[in-house]
Each structure stands twice: as C-alpha cells, then as structure tokens.
Here is the input.
Amino acid sequence: MIKTMKVNKKEFETLAVRTQIETSQFSEHSVPLYLTSGFVFDDAEEMRASFAEEKQRDLYSRYSNPNVNEFTEKVCLMEGAEAGFAFASGMAAVFSTFATLLDAGDHVVSCSSVFGATHGLFTKYFPKWNIECSYFGINDVERVESLIQPNTKFIYAETPTNPGVDVLDMAYLSAICKKHNILLVVDNCFATPYLQNPIKFGADLVIHSATKLMDGQGRVLGGITVGKKELIREIYLFSRLTGPAMSAFNAWVLSKSLETLAVRVEKHCENALKLALFLEAHPKVKWVKYPFLKSHPKYEIAKKQMKLGGNIVAFEVDGGIEAGKSFLNAIKMCSLSANLGDTRTIVTHPASTTHAKVEQDVKTAAGITDGMVRCSVGLEHVDDIIQDLEQALNN
Ligand SMILES: Cc1ncc(COP(=O)(O)O)c(C=O)c1O
Here is the structure.
C-alpha cells in the first residue's frame, strides 16, 4: 500500500518527502486525507479473507488507515525499524507498549529520569497490576545490571532525558539486555529520528511522542512505537482491541510535518547551541546542560549517538525556586507553556510546576534543581531568543 518514488539515493530527507501512499484516480500531488472510520468490501469472500488476514488491506480505522500507514511507514524508514504502530499520543504509545509487553508479576528496570507521566504509570498503576519497577539514576548506570531479576522484562530509558537533558549510553544498556535476554525500550522523543536512531545502538523498541518536534508546530498530539516485527505485531493486536490508534487527521498533519523534519531540526539545534553557549558565559547562570556543549557530563556519548544536540537546553538560574519563578515572570517574548518542540521558544520551571509535588530524592536523582529552567528552543531568530532570556536574567 505504501509507494516510494524510485530514487537512486534513499537519504533521510528524500524518504521523508517521497514516501507516500498510492495516489487516487485524481492523481493529486499532495496526499489526500482519508477521513473514514470504515472501508468497504466487494463481497463476503473478500471480507472473510481480509478479516482472516489472508488479504492485506485496511478494514477499520481503529486497526489501520491510509494516512496512519503513511506516517508509520515514514517513521519506520527514518528509524531503520521493521514495523510500527501509531497512537493518539505519546503516552498512548508508552502505555500500550508496556501493557502489551508486561504480565502481572513482571519487573522493569528504568532510569529514574523519565517523563513525569511515564513515572506516574510506574508508581501509581504498576503496583495495582503487581508489576514492580527498579530505578537507576543518571549518575549510577553501573548499578543497572545489579537491578535485573529473573522476572525483568525490559530496561526502559529516555535519552536525552526530560527535563534534565542527561544522556544515557544505549550501547552499554543494550549489551546488558542482550546478556540477560531482555528487551531495551527507548523513548527517542527529544532526539527525533533525524538526530538519533536507537535501533542502531541495540534498542528493540523505540517510542516517540510525535506531539513534539515531529509535529513541530504545536498543533496535534500523536505517538508511535517502532521496532522488531514480532513485538509490533503484539502491540498491534493489543491496540486493535483497546483503541488507542492515531486519528487519520493527525496522521495526515504529522506525515506532512515529517517532510520538513530535517530542516526544522537542523535550525532548532543551531539556535539551541548558540543559546547554550550564551548562557554558559552569563554570570547569573550556575550551570547549563546541552548534549553538544563540551561541559556536558556525557558529551562524548552524545557525540557518538546524536547527529546534533537537539533543541532542549536546561540551565540553573542563581537563587533557587524564587529566582526561577522571577525569571519566568520577566520573560517577554518566549512562551510559558508545558509543551516542547514547537517553532515558538518555550520556557518552563519544573521545580514550581511539573515537579512541585515530587519528593526531593526523586528530583535529585532526575537532575532537577530548584532554579532549573528548561528551554525548548524554537525557530525565531536566535538573537531575539537570546535577547529575551538575557533581559529576564538581568531583570
Ligand atoms: C519524553 C516524553 N515522552 C513521552 C511524552 C508524552 O507525549 P504526549 O504528550 O504526546 O502524550 C512526553 C511529553 O512531553 C515526553 O516529553
């Protein structure tokens, strides 16, 4: 069903632009939106064969849809994955992947520095399903192997992490997984497939919140899990029963967005590095964390795994919680919003918002300090971004 133009070179940018579903009888250039819940069959035999999976075709949009197929195929090509399934949001992808892989009595090893909602699944819902989770901190990865139990199903990691922008060595984690015959599941949301392909470093499954840089314009929610065919098959079977699928409209928007992912992400990264260098030299900034700054504790690993440093810069404003809040109050152009990966630069202060109720030891393990600000660097002119942050720091 997916048609790719015949091109000699299958480079990332070309695949992003030229991967598309079959054109209709109208020979349109831009892919149409297939806003339909169901699909029709010629006769009872075709319907039987389709439901029996003897015939490959779309049956019902909870299972698959042409626009969703196109988005999924593009991400698989970008990640070097065998198969994928697209979801209504990043958290639908995270939850459905966990729900498919885990049984009551299982155990997971995860980095403690993961997205708040994912952490919420581990702490609030896993216990009620008798699933246990053991954590390792960003600075004690050497403990990972000792946390593995006979009932451990997978190691879970984000790299770079949200919101601390720490970097984990995927090849190291994957070697441990292979040794113990368990899976490595990586949330690649901060990097996007343009900057980093976890499968190359041994990941079995890769998860994305497509809401972030994949959309890149703060419009729609989406998520996707890609990886080994047999694992995706199980995720598909779970999802076709439970209904977390991506909508055709969002898939249409997101598939178009992927066409410009490379150019957008290049510019995001250029702006982010310039901002990080500016902040590093500012007297009111205690520290800056950006994967491609030489001062980043995992700079060498970031260089090995990522093409560029991404669009998220974390830094500590001198003066703790109150200084963090005052900084946000003094911001004039950038947005105060919970989202990230938008064309518009966004600043957040985790200690007074998303992590206000999180225990101190959990925050410390996740690298979240009182005056820490997370900046999702956008596509405004970098001089204007720097000017806004500078006047807020000097305020
Ligand atoms: C690293 C990471 N994973 C998953 C998610 C969840 O994505 P969504 O908001 O699309 O459900 C987010 C959202 O910020 C995230 O930052």
The first strand starts at residue 2 and ends at 4. The chain has a mean pLDDT of 95. Residues 89-91, 94, 115, 117, 158, 162, 187, 189, 209, 211, 221, 223 surround pyridoxal-5'-phosphate (CB under 6 Å).
